[in-house]
Amino acid sequence: MSKLITVNMNRKPIYDIMIESDFAALPEKMKSLGYEKIKIAIVSDTLVAPIYAEQISELLRPLCSDIFVHAFPAGESHKNMDTVQEILKDFVEHHMNRHDLVVALGGGVVGDVAGFCASVYMRGIDVIQIPTTLLAQVDSSIGGKTGVDFLAYKNMVGAFKMPKLVYINTKTLDTLDERQYYAGMAEVLKYGLIMDASFYEWIISKMYEIHDKDAATIEEMVEHCCICKQRIVERDPLENGDRALLNLGHTIGHAIEKSKDFTLLHGECVALGIVAAAYISWKREKLSKDEYYEIRDMFVPFNLPISIDDIDDEEILRLTKSDKKADGGQIRFILLKKVGKAFIDKTLTDEEILNGIKEIHFVEDGE
Ligand SMILES: NC(=O)c1ccc[n+]([C@@H]2O[C@H](COP(=O)([O-])OP(=O)(O)OC[C@H]3O[C@@H](n4cnc5c(N)ncnc54)[C@H](O)[C@@H]3O)[C@@H](O)[C@H]2O)c1
Ligand SMILES: [Zn+2]
What is the mean pLDDT of residues 8-23? Predict the structure, then answer.
């Protein structure tokens, strides 16, 4: 069953999110957006391109005067300015002009890099997002944030670049490895926790279908997440307020990601960060003890970590404080009032954050 969600800004429709189970509807939709006789650059990575780029090129070829694939090496370590430079060079060599189009085909890394290239090439050309990881389908492809890592900082250089279309083929998740799939579940659970308690209950009730990648369940789940993200980005497109709630678990999560040199996946670190944030929320008497343990333990059936060994608590604290989400030296931390309700807090002390980090730090003899 196809699903369509429209993202508006100032009450004007800006782009559609289509949720499909194949790529068949893509050419017609692109035609309706006015794309004809243009050049298309499919930007992808070396794992995704061999699986899907040919099929998409075939489908889109009738629409364009030239179509080419630029696949850069997969992985977060290539989300940098060198990759951007190579892609832009390729655009120039193919004589891409202002009316041409970038198609971002891949996970969040590809979406962020390709979107950023589209935002700067000739001061901006159109981009269509075709996300192929669960994380990208429920989160990164929507909302127009693009960018790359720079020096030691994640997403330090970037731009807001709204896509012209987000086309989700949920079947692409069939080729995604299990670990990546479950990492995406951390972001799915996050939506339930920050804004929708009944969705959170639904996810738990569909645990087995989610494990089995049951098509109807995945479609419904992806659709619901897209609606959550749409609501947030419509309310706060440039992250001046509520959009920050999406960072639940991300402040400590990013710190762990960095300290572990990106050997853990983003979603895995987010799960750990959410556990720490829920613990701090309990200690602040926002959540009850039972609520804290329920939230923590609910990551386990989705193969997500709730504790981690071999971290240096002080280092994580230091990295947490150097996260660019710190605002005038004060960290904007996202805490939970209850399942389905998050809030921004700027008053946490180092000690409270450190206690949250200690809670997820697994040491041999127990807690
Ligand atoms: N822009 C935003 O708003 C936003 C939001 C959240 C995360 N992000 C960014 O997203 C990135 C993480 O994205 P990700 O988790 O999708 O990682 P990713 O893009 O690195 O993809 C994970 C791995 O899966 C492979 N892959 C992707 N789709 C596949 C498929 N269908 N079949 C087989 N293999 C496939 C990729 O090649 C890669 O090796 C981070 O850089 C993060 O900063 C951005
Ligand atoms: Zn995230």
Answer: 95
Look up residue 212 and give its two tokens: 């089995």
CATH 1.20.1090.10, domain 178-360, yes or no: yes
pLDDT at 240: 77
Are 3-175 and 178-360 equal in CATH topology?
A: no
C-alpha 110/C-alpha 116 separation (Å) is 10
pLDDT at residue 331, as a whole number = 84
Instruction: Return d(Cα 136, Cα 239) in angstroms, integer.
Output: 19
* Residue 44 one-letter amino acid: S
Please tell me the distance between residue 329's alpha carbon and the centre of ligand 1 in angstroms. 30
Quote the pTM value.
Answer: 0.95
- Structure tokens that stand for 196 in this block: 């929708």
Run of H or E residues at 192: helix 178-195
Which CATH number, 3.40.50.1970, 3.40.50.300, 3.30.70.360, 3.40.50.2300, labels domain 3-175? Answer: 3.40.50.1970
* pLDDT tier for residue 326 given thresholds of 50, 70 and 90: low
Beta-carbon contacts of residue 349 (< 8 Å; ≥ 6 apart):
none
207-223 exposure pattern, b = at least 16 Cβ within 10 A, e = fewer: eeebbebeeebbbbbbb
pLDDT at 262: 81
Pocket of ligand 1 (CB under 6 A): 45, 47-48, 51, 74-76, 79, 106-110, 112, 132-133, 135-136, 139-140, 143, 145, 155, 172, 175-176, 180, 266
- Does residue 63 contact residue 38 with C-beta atoms inside 8 Å? yes
Report the candidate in 102, 133, 124 with the shortest Cα–Cα distance to residue 38: 102
Q: Where are the domains of the chain?
A: 3-175, 178-360
Which ligand has its closest atom nearest to the C-alpha of 112?
A: 1
> What distance in Å separates the CA atoms of residue 341 and residue 270, rounded to the nearest whole number?
17
Distance 194 CA to ligand 2 centre (A): 13
Q: Is the pLDDT of residue 324 over 70?
A: no
**pLDDT class of 108 with cuts at 50, 70, 90:** very high
Q: What 3-state DSSP class applies to 83?
A: helix
